[in-house]
Structures are given as C-alpha cells and as structure tokens.
Structure to design on (332 residues):
C-alpha cells in the first residue's frame, strides 16, 4: 500500500488496487474478530442484512479507506520521511477503524469479547487451561482450542449448560456489558469451574459467541423492564428534581419538613415488605438529590438497591404519587 500514499490524490477516486488491498486486510480482521458473519448493523450498517449482499462490503471498504488513509494522509506521508514502508501503519489504522466502529455501535459485543479474552488469558496463566492454535503473536484467536489441564468430571454438558450451572453466572451477565477487571476476574473463576460441570475443551470463539448471545438477551430484557419503568412514571431524574432541596436556609428547612412528610406517608403503606422497600428507595433518591448522580438509570437503581426491576417499577409509581401529591398540596 505504501506506493500509493506518495502520489495519492485524496480529492479523487482512489486506485482500485488500493481499495482491494484494504478490502483484503479488512476482511481478514473481520473474520478474525467474528464480524464477517455478524449483522452489518453491529458496525453501523443497518441497511444491509449481510456483508455478502452487493455493495455492502464495498461501503465498508470505502469508509475504512477514508478513516485509515484519507483522514491520516498527512501523518502517513510524514512517516515516509522516516520509513521506506508504512504498510504496518495502514494495517493498524484498519484495525483501529474496526475497533472504533464495533465499540461505538456494538458495545456489548466489543465488551464481552474483551472481557472473555482477558478471563481466558488469566485461566491459562493460572494453569487451568492449555491453549492450542494461537495466532502469529502467540495470542488467543477464534480458532484457539482451550483444554482443561485436569478434569475429574465424567458428564458431558454444553458450554451454555456449564455456564448456567454456576449460580454466579446470572449476576455476572450484567457486569459483562462493560469492560471491567472485576468482570474479567469473576468470569475467569466461572470458566475455571466449567471443568466441574462436564466441559473438557472448547473453542474460544464458541465461548465468546455463547456469552455474547446470553448478555444480549439479558440486556434486551433489562431494556424492556426499563421501558416499563419509564411508562409507569419512574423517571429518576424527574423525581430527583422534585425531591431536590433548594439552597437557602429557609428553603432547606422547608425541604427537611417535606422529606419528613414523605417518610410519614410511607410508614402508612402496607404490607410491611413494600413499606420497607419504598423507604429504601426514597432514602436513595434523597441521597441522589444532594449529589450529581441523578442521571442514574432505572436499571442501575434496581441493581444498586438489589430490587427486581418489575418490583421497583410498582414501588416507584407509588412513591411518585406520594411525592407529587405532597408537592401539589403546597406543603412547602
């Protein structure tokens, strides 16, 4: 590719040979990341159903060309003053293009893949797994076969069954939507326990695909529950704004009185379990009203308080009614 950078006119259509070279590297990296058979929407091309459709991959290649070459043409030409060949820089830009597209438009897939890779690397370092068919840099790739160093299990389960057999799996799915060392440590522990659940070996790509599917499904359920909360008026920023104190001393005294009245009304609720939950929710909303954390999502509040989203949905509706009634009665 280097030879094209010297004479390239970025205001004109690029040489077909350059686009073909970019397409070859792009396709290789997509296959390596499991993106070639993934929906194009994951890279922000929702108008296509498959990369094999006419013009679908061509669109991606041209966008990649603009990212990897056109927008960085000055830097690439400066590099030619120091190096005879800058193909490696262009290859890196192509990889960065895929990473940026995936992290922005498929954050779950991007985060899960990263978390799983780190967790597997930990398991290998701990001696729990051995790896075969690493890439040219001795790193894990989709085709890497992972085998447990020792297993005493005589049963055979699928990877999915093995994951679901672990009680910690349900909670971990929630953490895997973001890249996190804590999530990686927890996943490493679960992966190491797969041997006890009948798993003897597996391909890295199979584990990644299963976990992606699980996390996507779980995240869709959470999104549905969040929308249900919003439909019932459980809008945290709005409710926090209603609860929030003003800044003057007199307003602060009035606000303290308001909080006491809300707490008093909550004590009248039945049954006791509901009353205790709503007291807990209100205390947290009062805390949020004094901080800059009012943008906390409904799903995050449910996790923070360890209350099922469907239950939080009903409780928030009741609390909202109490708060709005007291405000409308001009208690302040």
């Amino acid at each position: 590719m280097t030879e094209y950078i010297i004479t390239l006119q970025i205001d004109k259509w690029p040489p077909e040979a350059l686009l073909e070279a970019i397409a070859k590297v792009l396709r290789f990296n997509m296959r390596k990341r499991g993106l070639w058979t993934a929906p194009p929407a994951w890279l922000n091309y929702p108008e296509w159903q498959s990369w094999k459709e006419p013009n679908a991959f061509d669109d991606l290649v041209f966008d990649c060309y603009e990212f990897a070459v056109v927008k960085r043409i000055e830097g690439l030409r400066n590099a030619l003053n120091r190096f005879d060949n800058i193909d490696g820089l262009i290859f890196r830009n192509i990889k960065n293009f895929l990473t940026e597209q995936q992290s922005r438009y498929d954050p779950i897939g991007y985060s899960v893949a990263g978390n799983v890779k780190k967790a597997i690397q930990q398991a290998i370092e701990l001696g729990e797994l051995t790896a075969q068919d690493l890439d040219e840099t001795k790193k894990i790739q989709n085709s890497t076969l992972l085998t447990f160093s020792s297993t005493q299990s005589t049963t055979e389960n699928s990877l999915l069954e093995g994951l679901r057999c672990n009680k910690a799996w349900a909670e971990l799915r929630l953490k895997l939507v973001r890249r996190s060392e804590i999530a990686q440590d927890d996943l490493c522990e679960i992966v190491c326990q797969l041997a006890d659940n009948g798993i003897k070996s597996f391909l890295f790509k199979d584990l990644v695909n299963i976990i992606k599917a699980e996390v996507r499904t779980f995240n869709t359920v959470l999104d549905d529950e969040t929308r249900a909360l919003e439909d019932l008026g459980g809008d945290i920023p709005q409710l926090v704004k209603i609860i929030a104190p003003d800044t003057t001393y007199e307003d602060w005294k009035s606000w303290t009185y308001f909080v006491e009245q809300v707490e008093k009304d909550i004590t009248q609720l039945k049954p006791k379990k509901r009353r205790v939950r709503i007291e807990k929710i209100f205390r947290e909303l009062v805390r949020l009203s004094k901080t800059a954390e009012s943008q906390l999502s409904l799903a995050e509040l449910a996790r923070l308080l360890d209350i099922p989203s469907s239950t939080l949905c009903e409780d928030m509706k009741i609390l909202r009614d109490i708060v709005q009634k007291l405000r409308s009665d001009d208690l302040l």
About this structure: Residues 111-223 form one domain. DSSP finds 15 helices and three strands in the chain. The mean pLDDT is 82.
